[in-house]
Amino acid sequence: MNAAILCVGKLREKYFADAAQEYQKRISRFGKxxxxxxPDLPEPANASDADRNKVMEKEGxxxxxxxxxxxxxxxxxxxxxxxxxxxxxxxxxxSDMRYGYRLVFVIGGSLGLSPAVIRRADEKISLSxxxxxxxxxxxLLLEQLYRACKINAGERYHK
Length: 159
Description:
The chain has helices at residues 14-27, 49-66, 85-98, 115-120, 134-152, and strands spanning 3-8, 33-38, 72-76, 103-107, 123-125. By secondary structure, it is α/β, with parallel strands linked by helices. It has a single domain, classed as SPOUT methyltransferase, trefoil knot domain (Alpha/beta knot, 3-Layer(aba) Sandwich). A 5-stranded parallel sheet has the order 2-1-4-3-5, sandwiched between helices. α3 links the parallel β3 (72-76) and β4 (103-107). α1 packs parallel to α5 and α3 crosses α5. The longest helix has 19 residues, at 134-152. The protein is globular.
């Protein structure tokens, strides 16, 4: 499996960075995972809805600028279908076989993804109905990608 994660924000805490690095290392025996980080733009103090939308739009423009025309884009959104690990693995295996593209998972910043990014997405998935910090969402996604690799390779994984 070769994929990319395009995310807004850096992993600031060492424990998130360590966890992400460990899953990237584990995934490396199954394929390549590229991490593309974009700056998390600051939200102005006492921001209005218009101010927040402006920040989200600017982050969205930066995301769209990193996507290639042939990319298959999966946006992580709270209000999207949820897959269990087996269904996620099967979906990735099916995608690997059917398409010749770069699979790009997009994780927005603290304000979420802009409408333009959501429109560009070929599909949307949710990690949970719960809200997670985008740093933790990256670690969770990497863990699920690793789990999917193990499932698709016919290897044992923990339930």
